[in-house]
Amino acid sequence: MSRSNPNQLSCYLGRVSRPTTEKYLQGRRPGTYLIRDSSSIPGDFVLAVSESGKVSHYIINSKGSHYQIGENTFPDLSSIIDFYKKHFLDSTSLIEPLFRVQAQYPFTAKDAEDLSFNRGDTLVIVEQNEEKWWTAMDEQGNKGLIPEPYVKKLVDLQQQTATPPQPIVSPQSAIDQRRSMPPPVATVQDNSNSRRTSVPPNMRPNQSPADTGGTLYVRATRKHLMPYDDTTLAFEKGDLIKVLRKNDNGKWFGQKDDRTGYFQFNYVEIIPANECPD
């Protein structure tokens, strides 16, 4: 039987104490789980699961060539996860893993429910409750909302170590790589103060020709159509748009042919100055 590296599992949190594990899982949806190192038997693991209003801890014994839970044996940790996704433990099967992320950029809390962190910090995601805002807990036990584009799954970063390191991209590039995400539904007013509908400060677009007195053109990366809002600029994927004004809330004002209106900046990509029509 073969054995896998536990670091290849997103649910593996390493050396986490039982009390900390219970902080992570208490009150979570039944079937939420993680795997940690056993604190009493080196080399063994523990499968911790939220079920029936409690946190259960199932010891995973290492038997050299295989692992064992109770009377069941498995070749590797992945097989344990797969098995208990289809079979009950005590009162639930495995449904959703907790996982760790590492901060790629620093973030300062803007609201009371936010969680501040520094670049390089490791956080545990305890709930993916919004598309771009997740609930996380830091190593001190503080919990709050964090912007998802600021972090990367730790398991993904660990798997990248076998390949040449890539330069860390800017926050704007992080947004560019997530253009498929639905845009925030901000109001048209430039002074909108709803954090859930605005772009976090250091995720805002970098300086462009429009900022320095030049003309900025962008190309639509997807369709933008809101027929019931006459302040919105409609366009099709591939259309060329002239940017007249950029706003910090993520809504830009632009012109296409003889029409003007607002649009979300993450629906477009900036065209290099040497490719602009002017």
UniProtKB/TrEMBL annotation:
Pfam families for the chain: SH2, SH3_1, SH3_2
Residue ranges of domain SH3 in the record: 96-156, 213-273
Keywords annotated in UniProt: SH2 domain, SH3 domain
Residue ranges, compositional bias (Polar residues): 161-175, 188-210
GO annotation, cellular component aspect: cytoplasm
Domain SH2: 11-98
PROSITE patterns registered for this protein in UniProt: SH2 (PS50001), SH3 (PS50002)
Region (Disordered): 161-213
GO molecular function, one term: signaling adaptor activity
One GO BP: enzyme-linked receptor protein signaling pathway
Family annotation (InterPro entries): SH2 (IPR000980), SH2_dom_sf (IPR036860), SH3-like_dom_sf (IPR036028), SH3_domain (IPR001452), Tyrosine-phos_adapter (IPR051184)
Gene3D superfamilies according to UniProt: SH2 domain (3.30.505.10), SH3 Domains (2.30.30.40)
Name of the molecule in the record: Crk-like protein
Organism for this UniProt entry: Desmophyllum pertusum
